[in-house]
Amino acid sequence: MPLGEDGYIFPLADSVQRTAVRFTNRYGIEIAADLYRAKDFDESATHKALVIGPRTAE
């Protein structure tokens, strides 16, 4: 599947904003992802979230 000019494989809906995020986990590994939110997202309100990522054996 060809990439678009922005490097993504699908167009972003006009009602959605994409934000690049990065953080370092507890093992010192930098994690990068895209956060997708509605453009009218109310940052002052409390929202539920679903975070998906690998789990390591401890």
Question: Can you walk me through this structure?
Answer:
This protein has strands at 16-24, 30-38. It starts with 15 loop residues before the first strand and ends in a 20-residue tail after the last strand. It is flat, with a radius of gyration of 15 Å. It has a two-stranded antiparallel sheet with strand order 1-2. With 58 residues, the protein is mainly β. The model has no long low-confidence stretch (mean pLDDT 87). It is built from no helices and 2 strands.
What's a concise summary of this model?
This protein starts with 15 loop residues before the first strand and ends in a 20-residue tail after the last strand. The protein contains no helices and two strands. It has 58 residues and is mainly beta.
Write the layout of secondary structure elements.
Layout: E1 16-24, E2 30-38
Antiparallel strand pairs: 1-2
Keywords:
58 residues, mainly beta, two-stranded antiparallel sheet, 2 strands, 0% helix, flat
- How big is the Rg? 15 Å
For the largest beta-sheet, the strand count, sense and barrel status come to:
2 strands, antiparallel
Q: What is the ordering of alpha helices and beta strands?
A: EE
Q: What is the molecular shape? A: flat
What structural class results from the helix and strand content? mainly beta
Parts with pLDDT < 50 across at least 5 consecutive residues: none
Oligomer: single chain
User: What percent strand?
Assistant: 25-35%
Provide the residue-averaged pLDDT: 87
Q: What is the strand tally?
A: 2
Percent helix, as a range, is: under 10%
* Total helical segments: 0
Question: What is the strand arrangement across the widest sheet?
Answer: 1-2
Through-space gap between termini: 38 Å
